[in-house]
Specification:
Elements lengths: L13 E2 L2 E2 L3 H8 L4 H15 L7 H15 L6 H12 L5 H6 L5 H16 L3 H5 L5 H14 L3 H11 L6 H17 L4 H14 L3 H14 L8 H14 L61 H13 L7 H12 L3 H12 L4 H17 L5 H9 L6 H12 L9 H10 L5 E2 L7 E2 L1 H8 L6 H8 L8 H8 L7 H9 L7 H15 L5 H10 L5 H15 L7 H7 L6 H14 L2 H11 L5 H14 L7 H6 L6 H15 L3 H13 L4 H11 L7 H11 L15 H17 L8
Antiparallel strand pairs: 1-2, 3-4
Helix pairs in contact: 1-2, 3-4, 3-6, 4-6, 4-8, 8-10, 9-10, 10-11, 10-12, 11-12, 12-13, 12-15, 13-16, 16-17, 16-18, 17-19, 19-21, 20-21, 21-23, 22-23, 23-25, 24-25, 24-26, 25-27, 26-27, 27-29, 28-29, 29-30, 29-31, 30-31, 31-33, 33-34, 35-37, 36-37
């Protein structure tokens, strides 16, 4: 094995962490008899040689040796090596990608193409591995074939032939998933695959296999799903709970029903010829159901691979069918915008007697609500019921989901309050490093504006170190949190103005700002005057915002603010001018400062000046030409801020609305800001471009800020805010008109 490995000039190549002269050791480690050494080597391959999916010259040089490993039956954990090869060779570079490649990326793109060609050229070995004695190899081989082999019709034929004789349940699920992958990559085969999956969903003797077929059908041929998909899936889940499956059980369904599924019929796919292979359609790779690669005995290792395996083992401990959650997630992805079906399915899961199934359902409920709009009252109430469950992971998962829902969490308000009252010791979470934070239950209740969160915030304010997010919670409670103003003021007066002042003072200042607690002006002024050098600018900004929120109640700060505005052209001068206007209403004092800020070299400073000028309204009409000139600026957010300010100072809507609607189409993240302005303008005329845009947003099922592969903690809140503003703009409760 590894003939010629020492003849490769590894030292001349590099991987993610420097010279690649350690690659031979990693390759040999993959063949080691020591499980810990094998796992460390696999971790090194993913961490350096194939770092975050990258392909280097040394990655290409590894490919022949990786193939040697996967075909040697004496090597253990070969399934992990098959998965590594699949990842290295499975990158699709479509025409759009090629058009966007710049000179710096040409070498990397060439490496991806060469890796795909090299692994695809050797993909025939996976035909043999699909019947390997090692179940871990058999688990990885189907997806490798579906991803890499040039002849998808042959692959489909093999998957169907293998399914009836495969003894391992998880491998059978991988065979079905591989068929779905083939259909996604080779769309002309989707109908053929869909028919087979439909038969499996109806006739397969294993409920897990039927569920897998439905999940893949949802992905590649959703029109083939049964009309009653929700009760069908619910029934399969109940069947899986009542009849535990064994991985070695072939589940023979009688002499006419082959074990594991439905045999291929004589009139099905023909043998492939030179013209029967459709062109591939690239799709993003997705992993098969998680299992222990190789099925051998694994030892605990400090590697990333080891940690992920350990977490997976903890998560799946005691589960009769640990892959069921993956199948349900796949099904939900396939159901896509069928929010009603997905909600009904999750509601059924949340009523399950199986706590692990409910944990999965809680998490999937969060994913559904983050991405799609819909009526979620029943689902949220069911999530709230999990808060009282004695299983801590279930209750905690429910609490975290509710934290992200803001107003949508209302059906669970009583359940949140009950959980809060039952365990006062959990109000604040402490960490090994960093400041303490409020528990998700406290935040969820506060974000509802529920007064029952106030005692928890009061308790948090009495701790030696104040939770960093107290101020934000106060902001959501508004006047309900007014009783906390005195404590916030007292704690701010106690802050030492040293290098740690910002971290300690900022949550207190945020709370006082939200409450507009003008009586705290002396304490805020002390912070403004004594801000230390370290993070002093941040601290002064927080103090100035507080004073601006206090308005005329902070009149004693006027001399200090006038002194700060005498340094025009700086960010602090603009912020001080904003505060001075809010406190004194002296437009003559602040207008020159803001005009100069509008000419800053920094886009951020120009945006701040534009927003502040808008707050002056007609008193700043003289700057309208300057603001109009910014409507053509290359920075989109500056164009939006300038357009809004232009309307506020001039009252003219035509050019403003045009600029705002253009930005709306260019960047979805500006939509809340744009909708706020349209709502303040007043009734949007029926038939206008603005009305069309707003109504189109309201009928969209997808949240405007939904992202594939990531999300923000305030995404749901921002999207619900956008919907409310769209309705308000169409109703016309603003102060002007967009005509």
């Amino acid at each position: 094995m590894f003939s010629g490995i020492d003849e490769v000039d590894w030292a001349s190549m590099e991987h993610a962490y420097g010279p690649a002269d350690d690659v031979p050791e990693l390759l040999r480690g993959l063949a080691s008899a020591d499980p810990a050494e094998r796992e460390a080597a696999l971790d090194g391959m993913y961490g350096a040689v194939h770092h975050q999916g990258d392909v280097y010259a040394c990655t290409l040089a590894c490919i022949p040796f990786l193939f040697e490993l996967v075909v040697d039956p004496g090597v253990q954990d070969r399934g992990g090596v098959v998965e590594l090869l699949t990842s290295i060779g499975g990158f699709d570079l479509d025409e759009d990608d090629e058009a966007e490649i710049d000179e710096d990326e040409i070498e990397g793109a060439a490496n991806y193409a060469m890796a795909a060609a090299a692994v695809t050229a050797g993909a025939g070995v996976f035909f043999e591995l699909i019947a390997d004695e090692d179940p871990g190899v058999r688990l990885a081989a189907p997806l490798a074939l579906a991803t890499l082999h040039r002849h998808p019709v042959r692959v489909l034929a093999l998957l169907r032939e293998r399914l009836p004789v495969e003894p391992d349940e998880e491998v059978r699920l991988a065979l079905v998933e591989a068929a779905g992958r083939v259909a996604l990559r080779h769309r002309p085969l989707a109908e053929r695959v869909g028919k087979w999956l439909g038969l499996l969903a109806e006739r397969a003797d294993s409920p897990g296999l039927r569920l897998a077929a439905l999940a893949q059908l949802a992905r590649c041929s959703p029109d083939g799903l049964p009309g009653d998909v929700v009760p069908v899936v619910a029934g399969l889940l109940r069947e899986m709970r009542s009849v535990p499956e064994e991985s070695g059980d072939r589940g023979d369904g009688g002499e006419h029903a082959p074990p594991g599924g439905i045999a291929a019929r004589e009139d099905d796919e023909p043998e492939p010829g030179p013209d029967t292979t459709p062109d591939a359609e690239p799709v993003d790779p997705e992993p098969v159901a998680s299992v222990e690669t190789g099925r051998g005995e694994h030892v605990a290792t400090p590697t990333l691979v080891g940690q992920l395996r350990s977490l997976s083992a903890q998560e799946n401990a005691g589960r009769g069918a640990p892959w069921a959650a993956d199948l349900l997630r796949t099904l939900h992805v396939g159901l896509d915008d069928r929010v009603g079906d997905r909600t009904a399915l999750l509601a059924d899961q949340l009523r399950s007697p199986d706590r692990r199934q409910r944990i999965d359902a809680v998490r999937m409920s969060g994913g559904l609500i983050r991405a799609w709009r819909g009526p979620y009252e029943e689902l949220v109430a069911l999530v709230g019921e999990q808060l009282s469950d004695p299983e801590p992971r279930l209750a905690e998962a429910a609490s975290h989901v509710l934290e992200e829902l803001f107003g949508l969490a209302a059906p669970a308000a009583d359940a949140l309050a009950a959980r809060l009252a039952a365990d006062p010791g959990s109000w604040v979470k402490t960490w090994a490093s960093g400041p303490p934070g409020l528990s998700s239950t406290v935040k969820a209740l506060a974000r509802l504006g529920d007064a029952r969160a106030v005692p928890a915030l009061a308790g948090a304010l009495e701790l030696p170190q104040v939770a960093h997010d107290v101020g934000f919670a106060v902001g959501h409670l508004g006047e309900t949190a007014r009783p906390l103003a005195g404590t916030l003021r007292r704690r701010l007066a106690e802050i030492e103005l040293d290098e740690g002042a910002y971290d300690r003072a900022s949550p207190l200042l945020a709370g006082l700002t939200a409450l507009r607690a003008g009586e705290a002006a002396p304490e805020v002024l002390r912070v403004l005057r004594g801000a230390p050098e370290y993070r002093g600018e941040w601290l002064r900004t927080a103090a100035l915002r507080a004073l601006g929120a206090f308005g005329p109640a902070a009149r004693e700060a006027v001399p200090e603010l006038r002194a700060l505005v005498r340094r025009p052209g700086t960010a602090s001068a603009t912020e001080a001018a904003e505060a001075l206007w809010a406190v004194s209403g002296d437009a003559e004092a602040v207008l020159p400062v803001l005009i100069e800020g509008l000419q800053s070299d920094q886009v951020h400073d120009r945006r701040a000046a534009a927003v502040a000028l808008g707050a002056l309204g007609p008193r700043a009409a003289v700057v309208a030409p300057r603001l109009r000139g910014l409507l053509a600026h290359e920075e989109l957010w500056l164009r939006v801020d300038a357009a809004i300010a232009l309307w506020e100072v001039s009252g003219r809507t035509r050019e403003t609305v045009g600029a705002l609607l253009t930005a709306w189409e260019q960047n979805r993240h500006v939509r809340v800001r744009v909708a706020e302005c349209l709502a303040r303008m007043g009734p949007v005329p029926e038939g206008s471009a603005a009305a069309h845009v707003l109504r189109s947003e309201l009928v969209s099922v997808r949240r405007h800020n939904a992202m594939d592969g990531g999300y923000g903690s305030h995404d749901i809140h921002e999207d619900e805010k956008l919907l409310a503003l769209c309705r308000q703009a169409l109703r016309g409760t603003g102060k002007g008109s967009t005509s």
